[in-house]
Amino acid sequence: MPQNQPHFYRGRFAVAPMLDWTTRHCRYFHRQFSRHALLYTEMVTAQAIIHAKYDHLDFDAAEHPVALQLGGSDPAQLKHCAQLAEQRGYQEINLNVGCPSDRVQNGMFGACLMAKPNLVAECVQQMQSAVQIPVTVKTRIGIDDFDSYDFLYNFVQTVKQVGCREFIVHARKAWLSGLSPKQNREIPPLDYERVYQLKRDFPDLLISINGGIKTIEEIQQHLQHVDGVMVGREVYQNPSLLGHIDQALFDPNAPIITPRQAVARMLPYIESQLSQGVYLNHIVRHMLGAFQNCKGARQWRRYLSENAYKEGAGIEVVETALGFVEE
Ligand SMILES: Cc1cc2nc3c(=O)[nH]c(=O)nc-3n(C[C@H](O)[C@H](O)[C@H](O)COP(=O)(O)O)c2cc1C
């Protein structure tokens, strides 16, 4: 067990930032399962915030604790966005140094920044100088042929020197050309030991591990070696996992939240959002996996998929779909 692991470290368990997936409605749903999991926004680019066609930073206070993930590599722009985010109440700013998509590389941010540790350090320094909340970095273990442990070590060491204390490491490298973002989440092999080594070499940093983690047992196993665990796809596809997190990781007296309870807690929120003109489908598309492994899960999913997008679809669609499920 890492010596400096605070029992209630904010990032002990986090739901990963996922573009198009961890929207505000998704985060609200996830929050119904767990009080303590740290929820990340989708990546929002500094450019998008600055050119604001709409309010990218809006969220519901009930989603807390929430971290904003920023994409960018212009220190002044990132500093400005960090200030805005702190004013809006986010509890952490995270810089994306892990996304390999072409669009992101053209904008010179995401995983390609691993090759520019001094620039990342400058970005982090600028953001930190403007806010009190933690500025963290989400990265990979390497990119392309820069995949030695020394490369990762030097990256972390450089960014650490400006005072960054928290790193979340997706335990596989990214290939910047030739693989799609989806393939880059599946093909490069996972190397958890590298992330453990990082924690051993930087015991004063808070290191979280990410990539391919699916069960409470696996999470607990990783927490023997690092400070935090971040899970993405498994939570999205099977959110009932989140219902066990508070009891297993934060508070033995916390209740386990069932999917039915979480969905029931969503109903007032859905009604309120519908009355503000939000489409039902924009909310329930994140709830399709709620009953994975329960009887009726397929009917739940199918009924919502076939009906929630229809003009005027309301809360009765969710209530009818719930009728198909046996927990
Ligand atoms: C649909 C989707 C979108 C993603 N978008 C982002 C993103 O915006 N920023 C980011 O840092 N990582 C993004 N990721 C990567 C995840 O945060 C995470 O690192 C990756 O999925 C590995 O974790 P997992 O195996 O638990 O899913 C995305 C992943 C998925 C599946």
Tally of individual helices: 14
Spatial sequence of strands, sheet with the most strands: 1-2-3-4-5-6-7-8
Specify the structural class: alpha/beta
Bound molecules: flavin mononucleotide
What would the principal axes of the Cα set say about the shape? globular
Task: Using the CA coordinates, give the radius of gyration.
Answer: 20 Å
Please give the oligomerization state of what you see: single chain
The number of distinct β-strands equals 8
The main pleated sheet reads as: 8 strands, parallel, barrel
Averaged pLDDT:
95
**Distance from first to last alpha carbon:** 36 Å
Q: Which segments are poorly predicted (pLDDT under 50) over 5 or more consecutive residues?
A: 1-5
SSE sequence, one letter per element: EHEHEHEHHEHEHEHEHHHHHH
Percent in helix: 25-40%
Q: Beta-strand level of the residues, as a percent range?
A: 5-15%
